[in-house]
Amino acid sequence: MSPSTVGVTITATGAGVVPGASLVVGGYTLGATITAAPIVGKGRSALLPITTFEADVRARVETLVQLQVVGRGYHREALMPDTVALTIFPREDVVVMARPVAPSGPQLTQDHVIEAWVEVFGSRLEGAGDQPIYGEALDVADVMLTAPLIDGAWRAGTPGYSFRHVLAGAELFVSGGRSYQAVYQLDTTAYGMVTIEATIHTRAGRSSL
After folding, report:
1. What CATH number labels 59-202?
2. For the chain, how many helices (H) and strands (E)?
3. In this predicted model, what pLDDT tens digit does every residue of 185-205 receive, in sequence order?
4. How many other CB atoms are found less than 10 A from the CB of residue 86?
5. Is 35:3 a contact under the CB 8 Å cutoff?
């Protein structure tokens, strides 16, 4: 993937913007640098030439993830890099559905993915380390569709979802009052690695089963 140069209007809210500064969008430092510009003083705006990998921005924005509890009506959805989180009762199964978009490429389907795997972290959000409590290599044919699909479970409209996986609550979400994070990695044929993330919170107290 080669970079392209685009014009971006920046308004300095701090001391100013100088050549060589990084471009930060939504908390992510992108592969972007101000290549040439005069110093922009506080409160002033200027059109600056930015060299950036635009496709990386596109991939972060267009990958949509939806979570839904098996057998229940409540669900959540969000565009990455925002966190999509769902609160469930212990032991409930969760369906992770996604519309993954490759950097500088299309929505991913089965033909685009070589390998897929998932890791689940049981205490990652609570600051107790980054060791997964569960990991599994996934059969690509089981989690990736051959074409985007819209059905009764998908609520985010066109062009539909092309990734689906069920997280087994009886194995993963046993304890109440906990936070879990599922991290999926999709190794693609031509677009590098694509990540799908989902956060699951379990209600304190007894199971719904």
Report:
1. 2.60.40.10
2. 3, 16
3. 999 998 888 999 999 999 886
4. 20
5. no
Neighbours of 82 (CB within 10 A): 13
Question: By the 8 A CB rule, do 54 and 169 touch?
Answer: no
Amino acid in position 31: G
Question: H-helix or E-strand containing 134?
Answer: strand 134-138
CA triplet 192, 194, 196: central angle to 5 degrees? 170
d(CA 86, CA 76): 6
pLDDT digits (tens, 9 = 90+) for 95-129: 999 999 887 678 999 999 999 999 999 864 455 55
The strand pair at 85-88 and 193-202 is best described as parallel
Full-prediction pTM beyond 0.70? no
- 3-state per-residue secondary structure call for 21-42: CEEEECCEEEEEEECCCCCEEC
DSSP characters over 69-100: ETTSS-EEEEETTSPPEEEE-TT--EEEEEE-
Residue whose tokens read 């609520």: 155
Structure tokens given for 94: 């969760």
**Residue 126, class by beta-carbon neighbours within 10 Å (0-12 exposed, 13-18 middle, 19+ buried)?**
exposed
Tokens of 63: 């990958």
Measured at the CA of 182, the angle between CA 186 and CA 68, to 5 degrees, comes to 100
